[in-house]
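Ticket #4471: structure export looks truncated?
Reporter: QA, pipeline team
Priority: medium

Steps to reproduce: submit the single chain below to the structure queue and open the exported record.
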Amino acid sequence: MSSSVFRNFRYIRLGIMLVLSASLVLGTSLLPPAHQVCSVVAWATQVVHYGSDGRSGRDGRDGQIGRSGQSQTVVARGDSRVIDLSGRDGDRGEEGENGYRPYCHGQPSNVAYDLRAPDGGNGGAGGDGGRGGSGGDLTVYYEEVADLRQLLVDSSGGIGGRGGRGGQGAAGCNCRDRRWEQQVCTGTPGQSDYSCQMKTFVCEDGDYGRNGRNGRDGEIGEPGQLYIVDQLEPLAADQPTQTLTLSALQAEPVGLSKNLWQTRQGALALLAPGSTLRNDYQAYVGRAEGQFQLRWEAPRPIADFAGDGATLTIEPDNQIQFATNDELWVEQETRFANDMTTTTISGIIRASEVTQLAMGNVSGRSNGFTVAVVDLAGQSDALDSQFKLVFKTSNDDPRDTIRRRFTTRYDDIVPASVIRKDFDRYQLDIGRLPISGQHLTPGTAVQIELQVTRSFAGRSRSQALTWEGEIRR
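Actual output as written to the record:
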């Protein structure tokens, strides 16, 4: 439906009322049959679509990705061999379906408005071609590097499939009657403002549907890579990383190992002429092996963290890295001797326990005014805590809580000399700070904002606490 129909709906409604009035006077209906036009009838310069536009064609399916080549391990003994590790080609994308023809019948006759015939359906998009399969990797054991020249290797990637063609858009409908005249009356019948005149109306043919886009060709698959090992004995399996619970790590030492490889250039020069694969290759240069043990010297029992895990990773120098997740803050020391890595945990805390503070009692007056902060997690002995205070007061009418204005009287770090710690309770002696006594008198309206930063093992987090009220009388 044309957008101009909706922009001028008031005029449409007025036109309908005029025609209905004329129908009552003349005893005939000037409206076209309801099945021939859209639900909104347009008059004068309005355009009405009739019939039904064609349906768009279905998009073509993408082609399947080509199968990758099978990786192989061989021993080079000087005999000529042809090794096919090539990836398979990707499949062609499916063609898009052609757009459907519209329903062209039912053009209204002798109507007092312009018409537009239905448009053809759009063609569906062609499917993308499948990517070519990757070439397989080749691992070669050898004693003489010259023996590699007897291996003709095809580890090329498969060709990408062609993209499917987009579907064709369908033709729109042609108007049966392109131009006609019709009497149009305005005003009220029987009144002086009533007049009629002949006007010319037209029908516009429907548009062709858009052609669907062609699918994209698939990419060529990646070639495989060469791995060479200058020995005939197979490499031992390795386990370069492992994740275990803390309790399992404490129970007994854990062994890790890793085969070491060095990236080099010139793989094509090592193999028979005509070979196809990546020119960079991996050469075996040795093996890392090491042991790890965990010692627990933290004040809290390991049972509190028995279900938490840590990840071990061996390095080329046989040392093993120990890492916990971000939820655990760990104070640790690591030593390495005789291929044994020992990590000693002297302190540990959960990150979620760092910011479990709450405001306690606010009491006193003048230089005895204090604010308490309580550690609900009970970890204050392990954490370093710093308090930043913004202290504000107001002299406005205490009954005017909406428009009360506050003025900052202190905005700085609270010195340790005015903080008293009693187990998991901190008491801040605000009255001992450089704040004028007139701002600490009973009945004074106060706003307190505390930014508490807590640190442990090189990490820190902050928590904001607020309080608003009056200093008690």
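Status: closed, not a bug. The export was complete when the record was re-opened. Leaving a note from the reviewer for reference: The radius of gyration is 42 Å.
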